[in-house]
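Section 3.1: Structural characterization of target chains.
Under the original work plan, the team committed to producing a structural model for every single-chain target entering the pipeline before any wet-lab resources were allocated. The record below documents one such target. The sequence was received from the expression subgroup and is listed exactly as submitted; it comprises 214 residues.
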Amino acid sequence: MADKIIRVLLVDDHQVVRRGLRTFLEIQGDIEVVGEAADGAEGVARAEELRPDVVLMDVKMPGTDGIEALRRLRELDNPAKVLVVTSFTEQRTVVPALRAGASGYVYKDVDPDALAGAIRSVHAGHVLLQPEVAGALLAQDDGGGGTGRGSTLTEREREVLGLIADGRSNREIARALVLSEKTVKTHVSNILMKLDLSDRTQAALWAVRHGAAG
């Protein structure tokens, strides 16, 4: 169905990678590749022009890298969800990318079907936090939003935060807690305000760091 198509932008400096990704993704009935970019700066420009649902973003690119591109997209308030492409050895790069606003990450050798699933997942509002990255986060110094701020959350807000960390969308949280989506959105806004965070990805990271995740 046309209203269910996920529009994807590919940002990678290797043309052969982009071509391979496009070839696979274009056979998916619910995913459409709407454009490509060879570096972060071009990726930001194309994301602003095309307004994709999901950006598949390489981290290490010449010129403007993926992390800087993420920061620029946030500054522009671009609504696209960003799925970072990386490898296991790049944790020190992945964590800053997540903090910069990425909704998750996939490995460069990801199984094609798993890649399609990851795109669908972040599009649905989920946050992809793998155990390896969660461990890297816990090993880092606190970058803001200390444990003291967590004491200002109500019991219901802590429940919502835990479900955010589990990768649940607002709709799924509403079902789990028997609330309206509007009420869940209000709780999420309050959580972000109290913890001084920018988005639900940062909230999920905060929950992992401070033991609020389920």
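DSSP finds eleven helices and five strands in the chain.
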